[in-house]
């Protein structure tokens, strides 16, 4: 009896949840869809089917444009609209459209270049990197959560296009998947990936099956994906970007003076310092190098952790990709460049502390239950234990 009741109570919620996922997806803030068109959000942990519908390119600067091979010229039909985003921009840590990816001057890319020319190190430059995403017009098939109408799929290159490319490389029969005639329905198994608090879907298995030809009229229904990108002006993006830049500079100045002081102290007792055994020769990972690790985006790092079954909790490294990379390098015995080793020492200290660190900056194991934030804190249990233990 009780069981039945429970079952019925999920009615109407699953779909609601899908709607919520949809509205959350809009949080990327770089894409705005024409009225009446909705996002298709992959269901994690499921296999789903959809057709990719071609659209007519309106942008003369389409990122895939290749004059020599006559690819993606204005007026052509094409199946994806690539764009790039910069993350953690401004006081609100927004994800914004990289203006360079639509053929304009991008203040963030310019700043990155300027800092690179000035000799800034890799870890600083990483903060200004952009990541590649794509928009697709799709018709979900046999999916109870979606009508068989045109939707838009907005997903990172890494989570869909890359595995799709690999399939097509392997068998180019499927290259015509998005053609009106002789196309294929795509079937994708979406895995559930985790990055900090965020969950996202990644295509882990892609298959193709022949589908009916699509009517040419569908081209008129398909939204112009080029026009779905929300474009800020150079000035708007610049002021958003430097909003935090000032604060960060302040912080950097502060921490560099602390660092200088610390270096001085370190110099003094350098003699006594026991030489740390470095992992250089034992069990060196042939596959990954620090440079490769440095170039990876969050999602790729998550994948490394999962595939190598590393004992690393991404939650411990939220907004701290550098130390996450260092922790991965440690686990995999990847040699760090010298300057990173310094950071590593800090990070080891930080790591042992961060296990017991209050995410809101209060005293761990002491201020338990004294602040509003305690109610929803993910470390509450550990914090409470610590308090109990010390009492
Ligand atoms: Zn940019």
In brief:
With 391 residues, the chain is an alpha+beta fold.
What are the main properties of this structure?
391 residues, alpha+beta, eight-stranded mixed β-sheet, two-stranded antiparallel sheet, binds zinc ion
Structure commentary:
The structure is a single chain. With 391 residues, the protein is an alpha+beta fold. The chain is built from twelve helices and ten strands. Strands 1, 2, 5, 6, 7, 8, 9 and 10 form an eight-stranded mixed β-sheet that branches. A two-stranded antiparallel sheet has the order 3-4. The relative contact order is 0.11. The structure holds zinc ion. Zinc ion is lined by residues 86, 98-100, 106, 108-109, 130.
Q: What is the averaged pLDDT score?
A: 80
**Heterogens:** zinc ion
Largest sheet: 8 strands, mixed
The percentage helix is: 25-40%
- Give the SSE order as H and E letters: HHEEEEEEHHEEHEEHHHHHHH
Strand content: 15-25%
Shape: globular
The helix count comes to 12
- The structure class reads alpha+beta
Q: How widely separated are the two ends?
A: 46 Å
The total count of strands amounts to 10
Radius of gyration, in Å, reads 25 Å
Contiguous uncertain segments of 5+ residues: 1-8, 16-27, 258-285, 347-354
Strands, helices and their partners?
Blueprint: H1 2-9, H2 13-25, E1 38-39, E2 47-53, E3 55-56, E4 77-78, E5 81-89, E6 94-97, H3 107-117, H4 122-126, E7 130-141, E8 151-156, H5 157-170, E9 184-195, E10 198-210, H6 218-221, H7 234-268, H8 290-295, H9 298-307, H10 321-331, H11 338-354, H12 380-390
Parallel strand pairs: 1-8
Antiparallel strand pairs: 2-7, 2-9, 3-4, 5-6, 5-7, 7-8, 9-10
Helix pairs in contact: 9-10
The protein binds zinc ion.
């Amino acid at each position: 009896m009780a069981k039945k009741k429970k079952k019925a109570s999920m009615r109407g919620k699953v779909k609601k949840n899908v709607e919520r996922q949809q509205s959350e997806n809009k949080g990327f803030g770089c894409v705005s869809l024409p009225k009446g068109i909705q996002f298709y959000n992959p269901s994690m942990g499921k296999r789903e089917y959809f057709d990719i519908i071609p659209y007519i390119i309106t942008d003369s600067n389409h990122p895939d444009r290749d004059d020599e091979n006559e690819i993606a010229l204005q007026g052509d039909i094409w199946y994806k609209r690539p764009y790039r985003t910069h993350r953690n921009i401004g006081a609100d840590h927004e994800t914004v459209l990289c203006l360079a990816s639509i053929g304009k001057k991008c203040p963030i890319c310019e700043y990155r270049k300027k800092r690179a020319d000035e000799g800034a190190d890799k870890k600083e430059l990483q903060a200004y990197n952009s990541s590649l995403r794509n928009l697709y017009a799709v018709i979900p098939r046999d999916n109870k959560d979606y009508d068989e109408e045109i939707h838009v799929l907005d997903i990172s290159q890494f989570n869909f296009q890359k595995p799709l490319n690999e399939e097509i490389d392997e068998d180019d029969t499927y290259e015509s998947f998005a053609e009106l005639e002789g196309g294929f329905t795509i079937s994708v198994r979406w895995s559930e990936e985790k990055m900090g608090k965020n969950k996202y879907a990644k295509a882990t298995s892609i298959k193709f099956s022949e589908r009916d030809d699509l009517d040419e009229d569908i081209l008129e229904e398909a939204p112009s994906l080029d026009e779905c990108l929300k474009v800020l002006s150079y000035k708007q993006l610049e002021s958003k970007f430097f909003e935090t830049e000032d604060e960060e500079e302040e912080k950097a100045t502060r921490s560099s003076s602390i660092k200088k002081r610390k270096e001085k102290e370190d110099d003094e007792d350098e003699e006594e310092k026991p030489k740390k055994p470095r992992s250089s020769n034992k069990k060196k990972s042939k596959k990954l190098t620090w440079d490769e690790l440095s170039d990876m985006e969050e999602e790729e790092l998550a994948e490394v952790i999962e595939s190598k079954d590393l004992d690393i909790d991404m939650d411990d490294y939220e907004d701290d990709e550098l130390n996450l990379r260092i922790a991965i390098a440690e686990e995999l015995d990847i040699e760090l460049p010298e300057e990173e080793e310094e950071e590593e020492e800090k990070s080891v200290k930080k790591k042992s502390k961060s296990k017991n660190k209050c995410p809101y900056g209060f005293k761990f194991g002491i201020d338990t239950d004294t602040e509003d934030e305690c109610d929803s804190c993910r470390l509450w249990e550990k914090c409470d234990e610590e308090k109990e233990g010390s009492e």
